[in-house]
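Intended use. Records like the one below are meant for learning the mapping from a protein sequence to its folded structure. Do not use them to infer anything beyond what is encoded.
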Amino acid sequence: MNTYSGEWIVRPKRSAAPMRLFCFPHAGSGASAFGGWGEDLGADAEVCFVQTPGRENRLRESLYSSIAELVPPLIQGISGLLDRPFVFYGHSLGATIAFEVARRLRRTVGMSPDHLFVAASPAPQLPWSHPPVRFLPEGEFLREIQTRYGGVPQEVMESAEVRDVFVPILRADVTMVETYTYSPDAPLDCEITAFGGLDDPMVSQPSLEAWQQQTSSGFSLQMLPGNHLFLRSARKTLLESIAGGLRELQEVQRPSRQVG
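Structure written out for the chain above:
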């Protein structure tokens, strides 16, 4: 994969598509969580994967454990790619990060995504309603994560060497989730589409519906088969929905919005 802007963005296929889709991964993962998305969505947008420090090709860099501290350098890292209309997709933790990036862009440079896709994430204004796990001993921590979200690779459970790499990443990301503080602000003026997993024990349909309060424009909700990581189990349906939204935006032929 090709990278850009100090490794913050992975671009599997550079193109002259009329817009860019930035994908923000879930906790414990990186750009590889969106494997194949570039090929599947490339006709509708240039797909760009956010790669935060401390994982995959940035493994030697220091991890962030605060969304507030992560957002400013992340924006600096993607700023060179905001010269076309752009759209955000965020999964779980990635949804909250994408939301905060959108709000800070509006506040600091007067730009806004044309659409915000959020998945497997309660609306940001809702309080975190689950017991904290970030300080649990390693074994308990992994078991609780597996119970809540699933997706912990078997090699992590079986190999101390793999755990030494994976657990600090996951613990830092979970810390971001558990310490996030929402600050009230005006709703975004872009449309928001929320996705949820029908069997997700962590994110209820009402908590997804509450995303409607974060937009002054249109809102829609789609529930998909699967648990918290339905981007795997319902991949085809999810990508078809995103592609449909991208095509609708192109039909409108609206430039990237300047607000303020």
